[in-house]
From TrEMBL:
<keyword id="KW-0326">Glycosidase</keyword>
<dbReference type="InterPro" id="IPR013783">
    <property type="entry name" value="Ig-like_fold"/>
</dbReference>
<protein>
    <submittedName>
        <fullName>Glycoside hydrolase family 13 protein</fullName>
    </submittedName>
</protein>
<dbReference type="GO" id="GO:0004553">
    <property type="term" value="F:hydrolase activity, hydrolyzing O-glycosyl compounds"/>
</dbReference>
<dbReference type="InterPro" id="IPR006047">
    <property type="entry name" value="GH13_cat_dom"/>
</dbReference>
<dbReference type="InterPro" id="IPR017853">
    <property type="entry name" value="GH"/>
</dbReference>
<dbReference type="GO" id="GO:0005975">
    <property type="term" value="P:carbohydrate metabolic process"/>
</dbReference>
<keyword id="KW-0378">Hydrolase</keyword>
<dbReference type="Pfam" id="PF00128">
    <property type="entry name" value="Alpha-amylase"/>
</dbReference>
<dbReference type="InterPro" id="IPR014756">
    <property type="entry name" value="Ig_E-set"/>
</dbReference>
<dbReference type="InterPro" id="IPR004185">
    <property type="entry name" value="Glyco_hydro_13_lg-like_dom"/>
</dbReference>
<feature type="domain" description="Glycosyl hydrolase family 13 catalytic">
    <location>
        <begin position="128"/>
        <end position="531"/>
    </location>
</feature>
């Protein structure tokens, strides 16, 4: 796989990273000196009309020719691509790579002039905590349990599927989290993300009964303030989880709507208005009303974003749901938005992009450095770059692809997307094609501000998918070295297992050190430290160097330096790659890279293995 002409949205290729509408910025394309490229044009589509501008050679750097061309930021999202002309053919270079045939505009590179995400986010390492299962403080012992809860000892096995699954109650709380922050510090994270903390009638709390107070079972509002103080004292940030698509059926908005068809809350939901009036003209309520709910689950009634009153209560009012928890004494640094892909979508109603922009405006008005992250379980590409979500949980462009490449063993693993047949094994070519497809359909900015994750409270555990510590290390290596913001689900760093989302919500075995995989924890620590220490791993571009069925090799390039990464899922033939300089091994224990007389460096063939070099 010889090095190809290359461009991405990183600082080496787009030095102006936050352009404003009306700016003209220089973009660069890098062409290997031996490539058949005699002329380069940049094609833009300002106001929908294609225009071509000839690029000029800016410099020759070693074996690379750097071409430069201006691009006008004519629209909030301005597309561009390159036309490479050789002696015998012309090729397009767009965000998916070089092709010899015409392609539609949706795969073009993108300059985005909307306000950028907060600067701190690019250096974030996120740790996801499911509060009921993380840690239990002494204060939890004195709390009366609700009628729905099935009390469990910390060692009680989790029921991964069954009627009791949402009601098993372990009693983890916010003070328990605060007491365990040293573990997060040792691991190397700097951002704590909590799944919902509002009162509900389940252990997962996505069926909120209220948005105006913290669940007393977690310690209440005061416990959140204490945790926020403890997190901020370490220089970290705390993120919340909000459900914009639905509430629980015990939510006071919904109970008011059911009780009275004339209540203002009625319009906050989708009711099938067959309810009439009695002979006196009074409203008559059906004791079993018909209403829209999330995937038909009646306990999760769907919110109607066509309602101005919902927009006021949820977002725009001075004391709205979104605003309150971003302010002191809680000071959340932003929100992860549950089921963002469904929010505002129902039949002919299509409010999703309006809602995303509204929530973004309110969040940044309330706290200018806040992050707004969307959950998408499948294709997120049409919902980003619209001045709404800063990024997404990249299940389809990262999680599922890494799973399919490193999948091991015969135990069936359900596909997170619900695809029949579960997770299938694929080779590196298919993995690379999937990653590039989804990456190419959003801006570099949205891609690098999305969460890359190996699993979550909604999926199988990565250890169950890959089967052993060696492949787990390869997966963590990709998490730490690929572009985007790494997110770790609590317990993955210990090698915990789980076959599906509910089965993966395992209590942290603080008192069972024999259940910790010390080698896996050490790998997480070392790889996260490497990410922190190497600017190219946080801010660099991405250039693929080689792939074969068992191997992925790529470069992370930044003005501060270049890093070479080798990931192997199994042993294979050692590689000889031409065109790379000498390099110092930073992770994995392989020898330093030294070009031979033919200009080739040798990469080891053992595996599974993960290796990183800093290039000279």
């Amino acid at each position: 796989m010889p090095l190809q002409p290359h461009h991405d949205g990183s600082a080496r290729y787009v030095p102006e990273q936050a352009p404003s509408l009306g700016d003209t910025v220089d973009v660069f394309v890098r062409v290997p000196a031996g490539a058949d490229v005699r002329q380069v044009h940049v094609r833009t589509t300002g106001d929908g009309e294609p225009r071509f501008t000839e690029a000029v050679v800016d410099r020759v750097d070693g074996d690379d020719v750097w071409w430069r061309a201006p691009v006008e930021v004519r629209n909030p999202v301005s597309n561009y691509r390159f036309l490479l002309t050789g002696a015998s053919d012309q090729r397009w270079l767009n965000a998916a790579g070089t092709v010899g045939h015409d392609v539609p505009d949706h795969g073009d590179f993108k300059l985005v002039s909307h306000a950028p995400p907060p600067a701190w986010a690019r250096d974030a390492v996120i740790y996801q905590i499911f509060p009921d299962r993380f840690a239990r403080s002494a204060g939890a012992d004195g709390r009366a349990l609700p009628d729905w809860a099935i009390p469990c000892d910390w060692d009680t096995p989790v029921v991964g599927r069954g009627p009791e699954t949402p009601y098993q109650f372990y009693g983890g709380d916010l003070d328990g989290i605060a007491e365990r922050l040293d573990h997060l510090d040792r691991l190397g994270v700097n951002t704590v993300y909590l799944t919902p903390i509002f009162p509900a009638r389940s252990n997962h709390r996505y069926d909120a009964a209220d948005f105006d107070r913290v669940d007393p079972l977690l310690g209440g509002d005061a416990a959140l303030a204490r945790l926020a103080d403890a997190v901020r004292a370490r220089g970290w940030r705390l993120l919340g989880d909000i459900t914009s698509n639905h509430t629980g059926d015990a939510h006071r908005w919904f109970t008011a709507a059911v009780a009275d068809v004339d209540a203002p809350e009625r319009g906050l939901y989708y009711f099938d208005e067959l309810t009439g009036r009695d002979n006196s003209g009074s409203a008559r309520c059906d004791p079993e009303p018909s209403y829209e709910s999330w995937n038909g689950v009646r306990s999760l009634p769907k919110l109607n974003w066509g309602s101005a009153e919902l927009r006021r209560r949820f977002a725009t009012a001075p004391d709205s749901v979104l605003r309150r928890w971003l302010r002191e004494p809680y000071g959340l640094a932003g929100w992860r938005v549950d089921v963002a892909n469904m929010t505002g979508r129902r039949g002919a109603d299509a409010y999703t992009h309006e809602v995303a922009a509204l929530l973004r405006t309110v969040v940044t008005q309330t706290r200018p450095d806040a992050l707004l992250m969307a959950e998408h379980g499948h294709d997120h590409t049409g919902d980003l770059d619209r001045d709404g979500w800063h990024g997404t949980m990249n299940y389809v462009g990262f999680t599922e692809t890494v799973w399919s490449w490193l999948r091991h063993g015969e135990q069936p693993v359900p596909n997170f997307l619900g695809t029949p047949g579960g997770v299938r094994r694929r080779d590196a070519a298919a993995v690379l094609a999937t990653m590039d497809t989804y990456r190419s359909l959003v801006s570099w900015r949205s891609y690098t501000h999305s969460w890359q994750l190996l699993g979550s409270h909604d999926s199988a555990r990565i250890r169950t998918v890959v089967g052993d510590a060696a492949r787990h290390e390869v997966a963590v290596g990709l998490l730490a070295t690929m572009p985007g913001l790494p997110m770790i689900f609590a317990g993955d760093e210990l090698g915990l297992t789980g076959i599906n989302g509910e089965d993966s919500r395992t209590p942290m075995p603080w008192h069972r050190p024999e259940r910790w995989d010390g080698g896996t924890f050490a790998a997480y620590r070392a790889l996260l430290r490497l990410r922190r220490d190497e600017p190219a791993l946080r801010h660099g571009g991405l250039r693929w160097v080689h792939h074969d069925p068992e191997t992925l090799v790529f470069l992370r390039e930044s003005p501060a330096g270049t890093v070479l990464v080798l990931a192997r899922r199994a042993a294979g033939t050692p590689l000889r790659l031409v065109g790379l300089p000498a390099g110092e091994n930073l992770y994995g224990g392989a020898p330093a890279l030294r070009p031979d007389e033919g200009g080739a460096v040798a990469l080891p063939g053992d595996g599974p293995t993960f290796q990183v070099w800093r290039l000279a």
